[in-house]
Design a protein that fits this description.
Layout: E1 14-19, H1 30-46, E2 49-56, E3 60-67, H2 73-91
Antiparallel strand pairs: 1-3, 2-3
Helix pairs in contact: 1-2
Length: 92
């Protein structure tokens, strides 16, 4: 599967899903779920992510979102994933 998201309409609403490496059950721990939720809240408040629906499973995440500040969607999503993964790694 491609690791690069392709967004053809910058003003569109998109469904994305992404999984933890090797499908490990990372989000069974509340502290990791909290990091993910804090990251989503930050992206909503500071990065212009309009989040319609989210679902956190034990080893993957679903989002339906769009950018309302004109930021490229692939950069917005990349920043979210990079920050979240780095914070989770710091907790270990």
């Amino acid at each position: 599967m491609s690791r690069n998201y392709k967004f053809y309409n910058p003003e569109g609403v998109y469904f994305v899903s992404f999984a933890v490496v090797e499908w490990l059950d990372v989000f069974t721990r509340n502290e990791y779920k909290d990091i993910l939720l804090d990251s989503l809240a930050f992206c909503q408040q500071k990065k212009g992510m309009e989040l319609f629906v989210w679902c956190i499973m034990t080893n993957h995440v679903y989002l339906i979102f769009r950018s309302i500040q004109g930021q490229k969607l692939e950069l917005l999503l990349g920043d979210f994933k990079r920050f979240t993964s780095n914070e989770i790694i710091k907790c270990q």
